[in-house]
Structure formats: C-alpha cells, structure tokens
C-alpha cells in the first residue's frame, strides 16, 4: 500500500483559501463592490464607466439605479469587463459574478504570502519571523476582510511593489520600474514609492535613471491615458471630477473632523487647499529619505514605509484597505527597530477597530441582506454623533502612533538591528 504524503504547507494554504471562498462569494463592500460590479457590466457592453448610467440588470435592489463612477485608471475596469463577459454574461448569477471579481484578489493574497516568505528567506530573516509573516498574510482577519470580503485589490498592489523593491535592491532598475508603474496604473496608492529608484545609489546611475523615467512615461501613457482614446471614453475632465478626491475629507485622517463638525465628508469652501497638503509633505519626506541614500533592501523598505506613512497621514482621505500595502512592508522589517511585534500589531489592529466604527463591516453584507443599509441608516440616526466621535478618537490614536513610527524610522541608525 502506498503511503500518501500530505503536504502540511498545502493544507495550510488550502485552509486559507477555504476561508476566503465564502467571504468572496457572499460579501462585498456596499460602495466599492457595487462600483466594481456596475463597472464590469458597463465596460462589457461598451459604455464609459467614468460617466453615470442607469443600471437595471442586477436583481439586488441596491444595485439598481445610477452607477457609482469608478475612481481607478482603465486597467482595472477593463479586467472587470472581461470578468463580466466570462461569468454573468453566460450564467446570470450575481454571487458567482461577485466571486469572480475576487479571484484575482485571492490569488494575490496567496502569492503575496509566498513572495514575502521567499524574499525574507533570501535576506536571512529568522525562520520563526518568516513563518509568522507567511501565516499572517494567509489568515490575518484585517487583510482577509479588506480584500476577499471587501473586494479591494490592495494586496495585488503590495505584491507588485514588494517584488519591485526587491529587484531594485539587486540593481534591476528597469524591472523594478515596470512593476512599480504597473501597480500605479492599477491603483495609484503606490505613487509615493515611484521615486525610490531615483534615490537608489547604483553603478551607471544616470543611464538607469533615464531608462527608468522612460519606462514610467511609457507605462502611464500606454496603460493610463491611451485606453481612454482607444475606447472612445471621455475621461473625467470637469474641475469637480478631477479634484473630487482632493476635496473629500475623512477616512483614517484627521480631516475626519470635518464630518464630525459639519456632518459632511467634503472640505468646507475656502479650505480645499488642505486636500493637497500631501504634496509638500511627500517632498519633505523624499528629502529626509534622500539624506540616508538607500542602498540595501532594508533601507529601501524603511524609506518606503516612511514615504507611504507620510502620504497616508497627510492625504484628505485614507481607506482601510490601503493599509495592506503598509503591512507587507512592515513584515519585511519585522524584528528590526522600531518595527517590533508590538508596533506591527498596532499597525493593523487600529485600522480594524476603525473599520467597525466606520460601518464598513456591516456594509459587507449588502448582497445577502439588502435591507442592512436601511437598518444601518436608522441605527445611525441615534448613535451618529457618538460613532463619529469614537471614529475620530481612533484616528487620533492612529495618527499619534504612525507619526511616532515615522520619526523613529528616520532616527534609526545604520547599526540598528535588522533582519537584512
């Protein structure tokens, strides 16, 4: 009788996927996933997803009406259109379609765990730390809720960025540029990392910098702007559309005080300039990182964490799923000062608490229980002030913790303990 050898690692990954499957099938964030489902339908029938249309194709009452205009570059909408063609267009089942849009996310979650594990092993990180990072990415509730359940694909962005930084540490600037700007044209939250190759000291520096800038320009032109022209889509062009993301005030930023004070998530007239505070802040961040002249993978990751935190903390809006990019970079330096295990857990626990106070968690059930949005609205009438106050308190805690982390990372000396 042949003995069947059971691969424990395969079983662990299978368990993670088994947990993600029902989350991906039944759940989805009320605003984001609704936008993704509508966008897939519109793209598949040749309509412009960046303009409002009346949607009546889906059986869920919350998916009927004017579509939320998607806020991402064309590459993700095109993928959603393909997914619609291969699923709902053939088998009109809403939950199957919902699940299909999450397949790239689940694959990204698993791939990110393996890529992180592999890079940490190559950089001689302690085996226990490597195993913790691998298991964490496979089972961490915050990551699974904000990706497989929510529908956001930030772990795909994180996957591309981590590999890009690793290539950069090996001097492969062109490969790094391709991946960094692929992440950018999918979701621009990786923008703060785009300048790191320009700071990286390497032989033949100017030649590689010119090559990198050329790759960046071609990627943005070909995958960001060209699809609008080829598909005949009218890109958002009015001042209100172009600046909408800079006028929103809230999420995990101190600007959430605007909602607490005036019960709206838009900057009051006269202070809209605060939506651009991240520009000078990020430039200052680059100057601070440039003084260190990053040369190793550890220094690149540390600089990346600083730049991302400065960007996230000074933006007018920060969504919980965006923190996944930060989590992966922090895992790569886990065990090094100042990102010890305690600080690392603060990095995801605080956003998880915020997710509940922001009502994002109950919104995940809008597909299986359409009435939940009305029930939430009724409940919020009686607790809104206290919920917003609690949310703002959590934001203040997050800001204090994150800014201290930025300062400590910048003060870190070259002989600090590092896994690299």
What is the secondary structure topology, with strand pairs?
Layout: H1 8-26, H2 32-44, E1 54-55, E2 65-66, H3 75-86, H4 94-122, H5 127-139, H6 141-149, H7 154-169, H8 173-186, H9 196-199, H10 205-231, H11 239-242, H12 244-247, E3 250-251, H13 257-262, H14 278-290, H15 297-314, E4 317-318, H16 323-332, H17 341-357, H18 360-363, H19 372-411
Parallel strand pairs: 3-4
Antiparallel strand pairs: 1-2
Helix pairs in contact: 1-4, 1-6, 2-3, 4-5, 4-6, 4-7, 7-8, 7-16, 8-10, 14-15, 15-16, 15-19, 16-17, 17-19
Element-by-element helix/strand order: HHEEHHHHHHHHHHEHHHEHHHH
Please tally the β strands and state the result.
4
* Distance separating the two termini: 47 Å
Lateral arrangement of strands in the main beta sheet: 1-2
Instruction: From the alpha carbons, calculate the radius of gyration and give it in angstroms.
Output: 22 Å
Structural class: mainly alpha
Spans where pLDDT lies below 50 across 5 or more residues:
1-5, 413-420
Number of helices: 19
Biggest sheet descriptor: 2 strands, antiparallel
Average pLDDT over all residues = 90
Shape: globular
Question: Percent helix among the residues?
Answer: 55-70%
Strand % is: under 5%
Structure explained in plain terms:
The chain is mainly alpha-helical and 420 residues long. It contains 19 helices and 4 strands. It has helices spanning 8-26, 32-44, 75-86, 94-122, 127-139, 141-149, 154-169, 173-186, 196-199, 205-231, 239-242, 244-247, 257-262, 278-290, 297-314, 323-332, 341-357, 360-363, 372-411; strands at residues 54-55, 65-66, 250-251, 317-318. The termini are far apart. Residues 1-5 and 413-420 have low confidence and may be disordered.
């Amino acid at each position: 009788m042949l003995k069947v050898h059971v691969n424990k690692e395969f079983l662990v990954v299978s368990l993670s996927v088994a947990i993600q499957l029902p989350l991906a099938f039944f759940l989805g964030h009320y605003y984001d996933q609704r936008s993704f489902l509508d966008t897939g339908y519109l793209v598949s029938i040749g309509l412009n997803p960046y303009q409002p249309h009346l949607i009546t194709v889906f059986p869920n009452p919350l998916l009927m009406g004017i579509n939320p205009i998607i806020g991402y570059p064309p590459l993700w909408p095109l993928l959603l259109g393909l997914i619609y063609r291969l699923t709902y267009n053939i088998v009109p089942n809403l939950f199957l379609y919902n699940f299909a849009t999450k397949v790239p996310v689940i694959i990204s979650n698993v791939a990110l765990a393996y890529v992180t594990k592999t890079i940490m092993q190559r950089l001689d990180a302690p085996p226990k730390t490597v195993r913790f990072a691998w298991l964490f990415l496979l089972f961490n509730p915050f990551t699974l809720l904000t990706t497989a359940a929510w529908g956001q694909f930030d772990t795909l962005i994180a996957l591309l960025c981590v590999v890009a930084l690793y290539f950069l540490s090996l001097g492969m600037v062109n490969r790094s540029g391709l991946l960094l700007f692929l992440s950018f044209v999918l979701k621009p939250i990786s923008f703060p990392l785009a300048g790191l190759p320009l700071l990286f000291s390497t032989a033949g520096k100017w030649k590689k910098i010119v090559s990198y800038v050329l790759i960046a320009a071609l990627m943005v032109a070909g995958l960001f702007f060209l699809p609008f022209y080829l598909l005949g889509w009218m890109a958002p062009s009015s001042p209100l559309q172009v600046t909408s993301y800079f006028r929103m005030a809230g999420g995990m930023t101190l600007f959430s005080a605007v909602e607490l004070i005036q019960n709206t998530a838009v900057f009051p007239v006269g202070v809209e300039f605060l939506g651009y505070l991240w520009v000078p802040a990020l430039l200052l961040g680059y100057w601070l990182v440039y003084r260190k002249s990053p040369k190793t993978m550890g220094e690149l990751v540390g600089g990346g964490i600083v730049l991302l935190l400065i960007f996230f903390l000074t933006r007018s809006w920060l969504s919980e799923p965006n923190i996944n990019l930060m989590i992966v970079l922090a895992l790569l330096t886990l065990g090094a000062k100042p990102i010890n295990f305690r600080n690392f857990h603060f990095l995801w626990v605080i956003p998880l608490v915020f997710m509940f106070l922001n009502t994002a968690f109950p919104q995940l059930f809008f597909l299986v229980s359409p009435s939940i949005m009305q029930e939430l609205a009724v409940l919020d009438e009686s607790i809104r002030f206290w919920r917003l106050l609690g949310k703002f308190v959590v934001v203040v805690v997050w800001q204090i913790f994150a800014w201290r982390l930025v300062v400590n990372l910048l003060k870190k000396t070259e002989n600090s303990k590092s896994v690299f």
